[in-house]
Amino acid sequence: MRTKKWHRRAMGIMGALALGVLLIFYTSTSTIDTTPYFETSYYRNTIKKMDDTFKNTMQVKGGLLAGFARINITPHTVNDVPEPSKGKFNALKLAGFGDGKIAVGVHDSIFAKAIALEVNGKEIIFISADLLSIPETVVAHVTANLGGDLSREQLFFGATHTHSSIGHCIPGFVGESFGGDFRPEVVAWLGDAFVKLILKARKDKKIARFSSGTIRTPNLVRNRIIGETGRVNDRLSLVSFEQESGKKAVVGIFAAHATTIGSWNNTYSGDYPGYFQRNLEGKGIDLALFFAGTVGSHSHNGKGEKFDRARYVGETLADSAHIRLKTMQHDSIITMISATIALEVPELQAVYVTDRLRLSPFLAGKLMPKMKSIHLQGIRLNDLVWITMPYELSGEYGIDLKNALAVEGYKSALTSFNGQYLGYIVPQKYYYFKHYEPRLMGWYGPTMGDYLMELKFRLANGLTGTKL
Predict the structure, then answer these.
(1) First-to-last CA distance in the chain?
(2) b/e for 307-340, b at 16 or more Cβ within 10 A?
(3) What is the pLDDT of residues 226-267, one digit of tens each?
(4) What is the 3-state secondary structure (H, E, C) of the chain?
(5) What is the pLDDT of residues 391-431, one digit of tens each?
(6) Distances (CA, A) of 201 to 198, 248, 359, 414
(7) Phi, psi (5° rounding) for residue 239?
(8) For 70, phi and psi rounded to 5 degrees?
(9) How big is the CA angle at 154 (ends 151 and 59), to the nearest 5 degrees?
(10) pLDDT over 70 at 117, yes or no
(11) Which residues contact 80 (CB under 8 A, 6 or more apart)?
(12) Residue 17 pLDDT > 80, yes or no?
């Protein structure tokens, strides 16, 4: 009798536990949302914001002023008392691979660089740095400390995406997994450096000329999701500015991931973009910048081992740039129009559970850094359309927009890491593919890519007055 009683009690406990497990599973997961994006409120709200933006956007035309600046942001490792405001730290982790490597030295210095433009009183600043990304924390520090003289809408951020640079800038589980514990003193130091950089570039503004161009470099990039059968954006985009005195600045934009240097490395390095910039600056260019392009789904295709591979990709890319720069014609009169759109996005659908289930938006949100605002920005300089994005766009998507603009007679530059981060944006056909980019880093559901591509096409239409 007593055995039956304990048996019933055990069964009841097991049933309660099973019910509890099911309840936890039900409340902690959610079904993937496949609602067509054009039927959602976030789509309608963003389109309205975009339409309102262009109603109040004016293009300007006139002579060009351009100023150039660089600042060394290589941290100093010290064994005694750290001085964060001077870039002196006891130990910092490298950002990118998530294996917690402490930087023990410097293979090559890392920099932040800027170009300040002004046309008929309208001013825009391009800023890029040898960083994994441009964290929102750093951008917030910059805009708060510019004294209201420049707005966020005038700042176009980008990063080289080197995985051998400074961590500790992104709060939350995901940010700290890739770059170490969040340290406000690192953010403040980097933010102050960016402010000095921007002011220095503005102070350097002089009468200048502008040009842009592209050159194909198919031997340096590959589709890393499906290999040789995948489409590849193999175009190196170049943007050139030349001051009246002859001082030159060149921006290079390319789609290959800056991962020629792997997780074996424990020193600061600019990876192949560093070699690209140093090569140009050693051969007649006063300031060379690099912006990561449509790096989603694209990797490098180099030769050699370790740093020799980085050198090969960077310097071969620079050789192509030198060839194209010789044929580019510069203009002194510039037509300029720019726009900044505040995006709304769907609920998070991050952390894979099954093909149909992801972690609930509430729990996934606890893992991600909070984003106060998300900016998609675009600018047209004569026949160049430059769109900078807060995510890693697939090069396959990038090809579609670049081709559409080319048909209408426009060159294009598409860059990533504009101050926030929404993960990888790859074509919907890859969403259920068992690969790192869509499965681990696709955070907003299967329709996110098509939604963002429509926004970029609309943004390009507004900048050019065409219908792509």
Answers:
(1) 81
(2) bebbbbbbebbbebbeebbeeeeeeeebebbbbb
(3) 888 889 999 999 999 999 999 999 999 999 999 999 889 999
(4) CHHHHHHHHHHHHHHHHHHHHHHHHHHHEEECCCCCHHHCHHHHHHHHHHHHHHHCCCCEEEEEEEEEEEEECCCEECCCCCEHHHCEECCCEEECCCCCCECCEECCCCEEEEEEEEECCEEEEEEEECCCCCCHHHHHHHHHHCCCCCCHHHEEEEECCCCCEECCCCCHHHHHHHHCCCCHHHHHHHHHHHHHHHHHHHHCCEEEEEEEEEEECHHHEEECCCHHHCCCCCEEEEEEEEECCCCEEEEEEECCCCCCCCCCCCEECCHHHHHHHHHHHCCCCCEEEEEECCCECEEECCCCCCHHHHHHHHHHHHHHHHHHHCCCCCECEEEEEEEEEECCCCCCCCCECCCCEEECHHHHHHHCCCCCCCEEEEEEECCEEEEECCCEEEHHHHHHHHHHHHHCCCEEEEECCCCCCCCEECCHHHCCCCCHHHHHHCCCCCCHHHHHHHHHHHHHHHHHCCCC
(5) 999 999 999 999 999 999 999 999 999 999 999 999 999 98
(6) 5, 13, 45, 23
(7) -125, 125
(8) -140, 155
(9) 120
(10) yes
(11) none
(12) no
Q: Which residue has the tokens 């071969």?
A: 316
Cβ proximity of 299 and 224 under 8 Å: yes
Retrieve residue 15's tokens. Answer: 């049933």
Q: Which residues contact 71 (CB under 8 A, 6 or more apart)?
A: 111, 112, 113, 193, 196, 197, 200
| Assessment of whether the complete model's pTM goes beyond 0.70 | yes
Contacts of 349 (CB under 8 A, 6+ apart): 30, 32, 33, 358, 361, 364, 443, 444, 445
Q: Are strands 206-216 and 357-359 parallel, antiparallel or unpaired?
A: unpaired
Residues 35 and 267: their CA atoms lie apart, in Å, by 45
Here the tokens at position 72 are 């060394």
Do 164 and 106 meet the contact criterion of CB atoms below 8 Å apart? no
Tokens of 3: 């055995």
C-alpha 445: how far from chain center: 19
